[in-house]
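Title: [Solved] Na+/H+ antiporter subunit C 3D structure

Original question kept below for reference.
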Amino acid sequence: MEVILALAIGVLTGSAVWLLLRPRTFQFIMGLSLLAYAVNLFIFSMGRLGLAIDKEPVIQPGVPQDLLHYADPMPQALTLTAIVIGFAMTALFLVLLLASRGVAGSDHVDGRDAQDTQEMP
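Solution (posted by the thread starter after getting help):
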């Protein structure tokens, strides 16, 4: 399970870096979203008991009140907060993308189309 999770985090991070280096704004935003998903998986997996099986999520009578018998709620809370912040960030970047495209007439990162860059000496 840990190998699959590490592989998923690596593939998401690699894809995100590749998209972040692309010249179009939409690809950049998709790269940021993938990077946010990779960070969320990383935060959730770094919880010592985040992937625990057969652990109680809520305090039960008769079970000692320590993290050996319960799931750790901190990674889950951090991941949920990061998802909400990432969604708001993506919405803001999409609004900026639409405004930038309206002003510049292109969604290229530096404001030029591919044809304009080929014509320059």
